[in-house]
Amino acid sequence: MIESMTExxxxxxxxDGFVVRPDGGPFPAVLVLMDIWGLREELFDLARKVAAAxxxxxxxxFYYRQGPVRFEFRDAQGRMKSFENIxxxxxxxxRAQMGRITDDLAMKDLRSILDFLNGQKSVKAGPKxxxxxxxxxxxxxxxxxxxxxxxxxxxxxxGTRLATDAPLSPHKLAAACRGEIYCGxxxxxDLAPPATRKALQAAFAANPHVRYxxxxxxxxxxxxxxxxxxxxxxRAGEQDWENIFSMFRRMLTA
Length: 254
Description:
Elements: E1 2-10, E2 13-21, E3 29-33, H1 41-52, E4 56-60, H2 88-98, H3 103-118, E5 128-133, H4 135-146, E6 151-157, H5 170-173, E7 179-188, H6 194-205, E8 210-221, H7 234-253
Parallel strand pairs: 3-4, 3-5, 5-6, 6-7, 7-8
Antiparallel strand pairs: 1-2, 2-4
């Protein structure tokens, strides 16, 4: 495997990121889209998992305007703490950081990321995929809608704000998506309640050009798909990855 940190040129500066791929190529491109915690080894390990399956995988830092922002808080067992298990002042600091990156800014950054990928000899021309967690889960669906000629396989795992009044709410963008969309939900997640899941299901059902699959993991909580998290649900995570890699094979390598 070949891996390195990289920089992606944007109109507002240089975005740092992590890239990993098998030797040789070219390979279909997949993005791993960060959550509120920012870039870290936990996401890099997931990118390595994707790359090992035969993909060129990039993890971009959407917080780059404020520098290499990272958040990691661990418990006595060395696991990353869930948001509700960290101190209130740290929660406030993280929310403030997340508030500095709007959906509009993130989607503009996606254009720069796509330009970067399309200029890499190790990236195969054609459809691309994405896997996003929490905040990144929303970005995965939004980018599939705004760049449908590029993204044909998008996965959102415990995604947030997926059905709101915002102009870029994913359920409002469903009609623009093409290919496949996969959503993994936790049964116990106030950030993706049944009403949100129902709104997404209805929106994608009205689009004949996309295959939408949603799985609700019984007993799981928000953050369940991240392997270093104190709420990690191995069974749910394995099911998600089985479904995601099947989607990638159909849409990116078939």
